[in-house]
Design brief:
The protein has about 400 residues and is an alpha/beta fold. It folds into two domains: about 170 residues, Acetylglutamate kinase-like (Carbamate kinase); about 140 residues, VC0802-like (2-Layer Sandwich). Helices cover about 35% and strands about 30% of the residues. It is built from eleven helices and 18 strands. The strands form three sheets. The protein has an eight-stranded mixed β-sheet with strand order 3-6-2-1-9-11-12-10, with helices on both faces. Strand 4 and strand 5 form a beta hairpin. The protein is globular, with a radius of gyration of 23 Å. Bound molecules: adenosine-5'-diphosphate, aspartic acid (ASP) and magnesium ion. Magnesium ion binds next to loops.
């Protein structure tokens, strides 16, 4: 018998009517003789509501208590889905992360899965039940509730699929697959039939929230066939898999962007060994993740040093940097939290020169100033003023002919 893990996101379980629709989908799969484990998210908006409540109670919420709170969202939907399935005559049983031993490390609000004990799930499947598991949550070795970071239900689903050696992991969501870019920003975005793990990993890490990055990492590592598809309409969706001979090989597969960016600059830094580490050391100690880093060529014995951080950590980084600046004898600290990062991604880029030039030309033609650039083997990222996001995405989409299939850009 084939085994599938289905994951339904917040919009797909946004009310009981939609949960009934999910139940129908699961029942259809069972009629095809498929065993099903279902992972669900909290109802749409619920996790945001809980985060806001927590901040009302405690400005910087205690991470352990935050996880106790956030995990309740998914506990509601697993119970409702099981009830609806039972009501339809389909045997079903719900479990929290802890109940099926999704063991994680103790990094509250961004925990990583270490191990899953599948015994209980297998026993239920053998007894002919649909197993419904809460996404986004686990339990630490000390027995505390943990959560896996925003979008973490994707990772629960993939980790379960890997542990159960499922035939495929199906991520049902509110779009019918992975697109060349977010269809909310570029209506001409095109659904991709397939994308490689490598490209999807870049897209996710550069801001495409359609799949949590850890879910893609996990699927790549354990070779779990992963598919993104719509919970509202029929269709094959997008398969995420390893590169193979028959795949269409465009230079650019997609455009990702991230609005959660902020930029900090230290001006007039003495050009001496050890300066970069003296600037970034205190930032790292405060657990702030630094993304792009640029150090300018020195002039008059001083240099300028710029880096980007997550926008939520902008104020914290700014105050750390102001004290470092004084200690270093640097001239001034500047900051900008109205910036975005736009990236083009494609494995085809590896063997082609000229892609960066085309990207920069396209932006220049639209009068968009590039603030920072970074490249790697299969992506080019630029930092821009926030107001240019839509224009940049749409003009790049057009310049690389992403709206047309089978065009090698
Ligand atoms: P869910 O609640 O089902 O997990 P998410 O909101 O996390 O859904 O992810 C789906 C959303 O991801 C889509 O509605 C879409 O706006 C956004 N998205 C961003 N980039 C892409 C992309 N390249 N392809 C498809 N969707 C994308
Ligand atoms: N409910 C969590 C969130 O909103 C996890 C998820 O939906 O994947 O981030
Ligand atoms: Mg999601």
């Amino acid at each position: 018998m084939t085994l599938y893990v289905h994951k339904y996101g917040g919009t797909s379980v946004g009310n009981v009517e939609r949960i009934r629709h999910v139940a129908d989908n699961v029942i259809k799969a069972r009629r095809r003789d498929e065993s099903v484990v279902v992972v669900v998210s909290a109802m749409s908006g619920e996790t945001n509501r809980l985060v806001a409540l927590a901040k009302e109670a405690q400005p910087t919420p205690d991470p352990r208590e935050m996880d106790v709170l956030l995990s309740t969202g998914e506990q509601v939907t697993i119970a409702l889905l099981s009830m609806v399935l039972q009501e339809r005559g389909c045997p079903a049983c719900s479990y929290t992360g802890g109940q099926v031993s999704i063991v994680t490390d103790a990094a509250h609000t961004k925990a990583r899965i270490l191990d899953i004990d599948t015994q209980r799930i297998r026993a239920d499947l053998e007894a002919g039940k649909v197993v419904v598991v809460a996404g986004f949550q686990g339990i630490s070795e000390a027995g505390d509730i943990t959560t896996l970071g925003r979008g973490g239900s994707d990772t629960t689903a993939v980790a379960l699929a890997a542990a159960l050696k499922a035939d495929e992991c199906l991520i049902y969501t509110d779009v019918d697959g992975v697109y060349t870019t977010d269809p909310r920003v570029e209506p001409k975005a095109r659904r991709l039939d397939r994308i490689t793990f490598e490209e999807m990993l870049e897209m996710s890490s550069l801001g495409s929230k359609v799949l949590q990055i850890r879910a893609v990492e996990f699927a790549g590592k354990y070779n779990v066939p992963l598919r993104v598809l719509s919970s509202f309409q029929e269709g094959a969706g997008t398969l995420i898999s390893y590169e193979d001979e028959n795949m269409e090989k465009p230079l650019i597969s997609g455009i990702a962007f991230n609005r959660d960016e902020a930029k900090l600059t230290v001006l007039g830094v003495p050009d001496l060994p050890g300066v970069a580490s003296r600037i970034l050391g205190p930032v790292a100690e405060a657990n702030v993740e630094v993304d792009m880093i640029v150090q300018n060529v020195a002039e008059d014995g001083t240099t300028n040093f710029t880096f980007t951080v997550n926008r939520g950590e902008y104020q914290k980084s700014l105050s750390i940097l102001r004290s470092t600046c004084a200690a270093l004898g640097a001239r001034e600290v500047l900051g900008d939290d109205a910036i975005v990062k736009v990236s083009i991604v494609g494995v085809g880029m590896r063997s082609h020169a000229g892609i960066a030039a085309k990207m920069f030309e396209t932006l220049a033609r639209e009068g968009i100033n590039i603030l920072m650039i970074s490249t790697s083997e299969i992506k080019i990222s630029v930092v821009l003023k926030e107001k240019y996001l839509e224009l940049a995405v749409r003009s790049l989409h057009e310049a690389f002919h992403l709206d047309r299939p089978n065009v090698s850009n």
